[in-house]
Write a structure and sequence with these properties.
With about 425 residues, this protein is of the alpha+beta class. The chain is built from 16 helices and twelve strands. Strands 1, 3, 4, 5, 6, 7, 8, 9, 11 and 12 form a ten-stranded mixed β-sheet that branches. A hairpin with a 5-residue loop joins strand 7 (about 170-175) and strand 8.
């Protein structure tokens, strides 16, 4: 064991001077490191949980990529395309593609005896991946959607159900106006009520059979609004969307319609821009907390050096070089930082686990899309935060450690 490390360990473990000035300074420095690390752990966990939860909700209902009629992008009305089974299979062969499902959209009016509300009906079939929607169901259960019969299934949002005072099992009439101005009437049964806290969906979208939506639009049986593509890795969205769009560029369906793609970032640019801004907030908080930890360590080390002036002079009188004495106090600072990191991990991880188990911190879902503050503990990032705090804190101690070179043995013996 080196001499600086040996002396630093003795300084860190002795309690003989517990009433002196250095002991409160050490406690303050330890608390500064602990609080800084705890805040960084909680901040990163909250931002990761929030981003992944909101992204999961947006992409869970709207999927990652939509394949549509190229004219739909410039029109407020959904135009039909025909997607053959062979085309769907070819899309599934693309790297990163997990699932492909057809859908049809139509506009209608739900009416009860006292109220009415304009809605968008989204028709889905047996290939519909209901995993996300099932997790959002708050009442009833999801039906088996059909692409060959009109079973009269209807899934509405909590917002729509409250506005129209609907309950599961209740029957309701819906009215649709075709291009010729004729009114069509359909009767549906409320099978389930969902809630995503995303107003774009909750305010207007209802789900029914794709067969029903296609027939109400007056389309052919093999036509639909498009297909939804779910990916394995959302981070590779752009790398998947562009090759898919290039492959579909020259394709024409049996009715001569051209296809194009539209990804979820293009549908919700404001949401993803908002989520990206959170990264800036995280970096600001991380920098501030590291500065707090660094400044408390600098002030603590200066106090310790000043109080240990006689010891420094004695070490120099015995032949210790300035480098040896500097390394002693840097090692001493490392012990203080290590103790602070342990407390910081205990506090930060404890708060994260407490929120995960109890959901004690709640949010306004109308503003934040979630009712409970989501939190996600990423172990590699958490460990990196501790290592980065340790490295930066030790680096900032190098400059104040040079103070020992100005301490002369002769003068230090008379220092009080």
């Amino acid at each position: 064991m080196s001499l600086p490390l040996f002396i630093a360990r003795r300084l860190a473990t002795t309690e003989a001077d517990s009433q002196k000035v250095s002991r409160p300074a050490i406690r303050i420095a330890t608390a500064g490191v602990a609080i800084g690390l705890a805040v960084m752990i909680v901040t990163v966990a909250v931002v990761l949980g929030f981003k992944h939860t909101v992204e999961g909700k947006v992409t869970g209902f709207g999927t990652h990529i939509q394949i549509l009629n190229v004219l739909t992008a410039g029109s407020a009305q959904a135009l039909p395309v025909s997607l053959s089974d062979s085309l769907v299979c070819a899309i599934r062969q693309h790297d990163n593609v997990q699932h492909v499902q057809r859908f049809s959209l139509t506009q209608g009016l739900l009416k009860t005896d006292t109220d009415f509300l304009g809605v968008q009906l989204k028709g889905v079939g047996p290939d519909f991946d209901s995993t996300f929607l099932a997790s959002c169901v708050v009442e009833g259960s999801l039906p088996q959607f059909s692409d060959s019969t009109n079973a009269g299934h209807l899934v509405v949002s909590r917002t729509i159900a409250d506005k129209l005072r609907l309950q599961t099992g209740q029957r309701i009439y819906a009215y649709f106006i075709d291009d010729d101005g004729a009114v069509r009437t359909r009767r549906f049964s409320i099978d389930a009520v969902y809630q995503t806290h995303i107003r774009r969906y909750d305010d207007a979208v209802c789900l029914t059979d794709i067969y029903t939506a296609t027939r109400l639009n007056g389309w052919q049986a093999d036509q639909c609004t498009g297909a939804e593509v779910q990916l394995h890795d959302f981070a590779l969205l752009a790398d998947t969307d562009l090759p898919l769009a290039i492959d579909l560029r020259d394709y024409r369906d049996p009715y001569g319609q051209q296809l194009t793609t539209r990804n979820i970032r293009e549908q919700f640019p404001q949401v993803f821009s908002w989520l990206e801004l959170l990264d800036i907030n995280v970096w600001i908080i991380l920098v501030l907390m590291v500065c707090v930890a660094g400044f408390t360590m600098i002030s603590g080390l200066l106090i310790i050096i000043l109080e240990r002036t006689q010891m420094i002079g004695l070490l120099k009188a015995l032949g210790a070089r300035n480098k040896t004495v500097r390394h002693t106090f840097i090692w001493f600072g490392a012990f203080i930082i290590g103790r602070g990191l342990l407390w910081g991990y205990a506090i930060g991880v404890g708060l994260v686990v407490l929120q995960q188990l109890t959901g004690i911190v709640r949010l306004d879902p109308e503003t934040y899309y979630v009712a409970v503050a989501p939190i996600e503990l990423n172990l590699p990032i958490t460990l990196m935060l501790g290592l980065a705090t340790l490295a930066v804190s030790i680096l900032v101690l190098i400059a104040p450690s040079f103070l020992v070179s100005h301490i002369q043995p002769a003068r230090s013996m008379r220092y009080e």
